[in-house]
Structures are given as structure tokens and as C-alpha cells.
Amino acid sequence: MIKFFRKIRQNLLSEGKTGKYFKYAIGEIILVVIGILIALQINNWNDNNKKNELEQEALYNLKVDFELNKKELENIIASTESSINKSLEILKHTGKNNSDNFLLDNLLLATVSGQIFNAQNGFLNDLINSGNLGILKNVQLRSKLSSWAPNLDKLARKEAYLEGSESELIRYVTKNGSWLNVDNYIFSKSKSDLKIPKSGFDVSNNDMLSSLEFENLVENCVIYHNINLRYQKEILKLSNEILELIQSEIDE
Asked: How far is CA 73 from the centre of its chain?
């Protein structure tokens, strides 16, 4: 093609058609510029397509992770609410409020069964660590994803306080009561093949209900469970907002 254009120019010059030569040269330059612009446009189109494909892949992966996070949080919140309710029931029967028909073994384990939220963050961490979070065009989505880790850190600190409070209560029961009796009651009500015997010692966990120290330890657990619940619900709200933004981007 280049040889063809060169031959035309040479013929025009040899025939002395200078005016036509310059018009032709200008036309050739315009064609070259148009060709370059078209090539750049095609290249940009291809780049945009690749970026869109990468963004869609990232959105689907994030959606999978945050749907798992949402489900896990909902289960943990339900468990935390159950722990709070059962612990409050214990506190209704301490000291002078104790009654013969109340069984502590039925509720005690729930007080020290706070769950830790282990978020599914693999793909989000990869995006952030590789500096590719910017492939997500939605600024609000990027902002909320960036706030995810700091919110998890806040919850983790509250979970640590609860673990400490639970450990104190566990030590108290170990010294003054019988975990064997607790497990005996729980396993007798379950479908497990494991049969846990009662304690070989003459001990009743209900005796701990007359202890002020026991009451205080249970109350501390209730407070920390409730603090965790508040943070768990905040993170669930954030997770739902992220999922809504992800879905809106996928739909577009």
C-alpha cells in the first residue's frame, strides 16, 4: 500500500502536477491521521472491554464472599441474642430469687459461648493488596469496602473483652461447680451417640446461684455479649449495603 501511494506521488511530480501533488499529500496525511485515530479508538475499546470484564469478575467474587459473610453474621447474631436471653434468665434466679424448679445446667453453657466472626475477605484483600481496588468504578462501593477492615478490627477488640470475661466465668465454674453435669444435661437432650455421665462428686451447679461473685461474672458476660451484638449488627448493615451496591453494578 505504501509503495502504491509513493508511485502516485512520483507520477504527479514527474508530470509537473505540483498542485495536485500537494492536494494528494494532504489527503494522504488526513487518511493516515484518521487511521491512527481509528486504531487508538479500537485500542481504547479493547482496553475498556478488558477493564469491564475484570470489574465484573471482581464484582461476582466479592458478591460470593459477602453473601457468605452475611449468612455467617446472621447466624452469629442469632447465637448472641440467645446467649443474652439465657444469661438474663440466669440472673433472674440468683440470690434470694433462686427457686427449686430452676436448672442452671440448662443455660450455663450459653453464657460462655460467644462466637467469633471470621470474615471471608480473601478476594477483597487481594484487590486491596494488589492496588486493584480502583477497577471498581463505583466510588461509594470502594469507600464502603475500604471501611470493612476497620469495622472488623473494632469488633475483634470487643470480642477479646468478651473472651476474657467468659474465661473468668469458666474458671469460676471449674472451681465451684461441675462442667460434667452441664455436658450431661446437654448431651442427654441431643441426638449425639456420646453419653456423658453425671459428676461423681456430690455437687449441684445451682449452688452457685447463691454466690454474688457468680452473679457479677454472668452479668459481665451479658454486658459484653450486648456490646458485641451492637457491633455485629452494624457490620451486618455494612455488609448488606455493600451487597446492594455490588448487585446494582452487576445489573448495569
From this structure: 8
